[in-house]
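ping. complex inputs:
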Amino acid sequence: MDWKSFKSPEYNYRFNRKTGFFARWGRNFGENPERSPFGPEIADIEISTICEGVAGKLCPYCYKSNTEHGRNMSLSTFKTIIEKIDVNNQLTQAAFGLGATGEENPAIWDMCTWLRERNIVPNGTIANASEKTMDRIADNFGACAVSNHFLSSDKGNGMCYDNVKRLTDRGMKQVNIHYVISRETYENAFTVLRDIKEDPRLKCMHAIVFLSLKPKGRAMNNKFEQLSVDQFSKLIRTALSMNINIGFDSCSFPKFSKAIEDLSDREKLLMIAEGCESFGRFSVYINVEGRCFPCSFCEGEPGWEEGIDVLSSDFIGDIWNGTKFEEGRMRLYTKGGECPVFMLDSQGNI
Ligand code: SF4
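pong. complex structure:
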């Protein structure tokens, strides 16, 4: 049984657990529901804040400022959280918030087994993992992203490409590269695009996902700078002209929409892109303490200093369909999909 389906008069989906294919519709196939009132489709769960960096070096732009002195979520807390947010059996995927090696929290594999028993697919992002962890990722995850931290590793892009190959060699079909775009990483992004076309290690990868630098944590302390609209546009257009599968974080949707303004296939491209899914629309973030935020970037921002405790709440009634998420969602709608928490600068960056 590869398919998971959800049916209701106004909100429906079909999800293929093997391929990751997902289609959502409303009262009919032509209608696109604004949100799922039943709970999130995807839960981003931070199961560890421990990260020793890549090859012993902490990433200079980590928005979480994670170090080796972090903490792990226990298996029992994880189970309670999932049970609370999946009361309607609507959750399709759990995306683990992990450290660079994927093995910082030893309970991760028990979490995977338990999720699979509930028909939920575990996913995650790593940078450089051991052989044993790679085996376990291939056995357990639906999709895995490999972060390109060429600034943190002497091996440059090669470390990322090797790790992509180690996963695709194990038969994984949904292996992406996660690439943080900033002025400091901009030129190298074009090298990676060329390599996707030419480097045999990347032959079986799925897509490159561009993540806009967030003005938080070490990125802010180290004065990393975000891209201008023109730079973003040039990068996106280059990737599209090379027929490379791309993705981006949902916060970049307004910028993406601008970047493709005059392209003839704009409508088609917009259909595969999605704006912010937080605030009770389709996804949610829970941190290692079991506190809920609209997304991981909102943690600690004004109005979201503490988040909402999931363990002591009725998740669907108090949080997902509660007033705090609803207020943010209304701001999101009235601002045409722009972030309700961060002010956009003149270049459309949060
Ligand atoms: S709330 Fe803002 S920062 Fe969070 S995903 Fe939406 S657009 Fe991005």
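The chain has two domains: 1-33, 34-334.
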